[in-house]
Amino acid sequence: MRNQYLQAMGITRWVKREPDPVSVDKFDIEKENLIPEQAKPNEVELSVVQTPESHQADNLDWPSLAEQVSTCMACDLHATRTNTVFGEGSEQADWLIIGDAPGTEEDLQGVPFLGQGGQLLTAMIEAIGLKRQQVYITNSLKCRPPESRDPDTEETMACHVFLKRQIELLQPKVILAVGLVAAHNLLESSGPMKTMRGQTFTYKDTGIPVVVTYHPAYLLRAPSNKAKAWQDLKLAMRIVAGEMA
Ligand code: SF4
Q1: What's the CATH number where 108 sits?
Q2: Which residues fall within 8 angstroms of residue 242, CB to CB, at 6 or more apart?
């Protein structure tokens, strides 16, 4: 089956060259709102709406965080979304995969990474020996930018409180940032992909390692870079396996 997943990634030319530090048997190819007690119903509703001045996510648990996101109006993207896209997967996952922002299909269904890019991401996850439900997948932005444009700095900063809290709750062994929007947001960098992939960063002062790789949508357009993406996945696997200091 692994070969089928890798074939779905379009990396059929990758071959095993030498024993991998990550078991080659396993990876057998190279490859708070206070609500007044007497509050009226409409006051209660207003109290959970996140505005640019009020939104915060500190100390929220998973359900409360998802609720905050679902009512958020902290940036202009709330006006054009169909659904917020909070994220999905295991809340005990070792891997946190972060993309840029929801696209058209994700906005309609409220689920991250759908369509062909989502299929390729699933193939990448299965190539590392996991099922999609065993990792946690989300985006830097929880609402789709109109015309699927790149989110601007103000929007990204407004939404980061939610991503930050997701990271705090999950405490993953590795964060895989797919695409430059996610990488720049997480690492407060503006470097090009070629200088960001192939090395290990740390998310702020958490000590959580961050590996940067290409976005699946980009890999669909530039499949020759899938081999590099596989190298990035192997780096992340070594981190999760505890083989990287
Ligand atoms: Fe709120 Fe993020 Fe959506 Fe902006 S993109 S409205 S900050 S959830």
Answers
A1: 3.40.470.10
A2: none
Ligand 1, closest atom to CA 75? 4
Q: What is the mean pLDDT of residues 76-96?
A: 98
Does the residue 30 lie in any domain? no
Q: Of the given ranges (39-48, 87-96, 215-224), which has the lowest mean pLDDT?
A: 39-48
Per the structure, the count of domains in the chain is 1
- Residue tagged 């089928």 (tokens): 4
Q: How many A from CA of 51 to the centre of ligand 1? A: 9
Contact 187, 160 (CB under 8 A): no
Residue 69 Cα: closest atom of ligand 1? 8
Q: pLDDT per residue over 199-218, tens digit each?
A: 999 999 999 999 999 999 99
Residue 25 is assigned to a structural domain of this protein:
no
Residue 29 has which token pair?
A: 């190819």
Mean per-residue pLDDT of the chain: 85
Nearest CA to ligand 1 atom 5: 143
Report the nearest atom of ligand 1 relative to the CA of 50.
1
What's the CA gap between 112 and 15, in Å, rounded? 31
Q: Please check whether residue 232 lies inside any domain of the structure.
A: yes
For residues 137-157, average pLDDT:
95
More confident residue, 68 or 4: 68
Give CA 228 to chain center in angstroms: 19
pTM summary value: 0.83
Domain range enclosing 81: 42-240
In a domain, 140, yes or no: yes
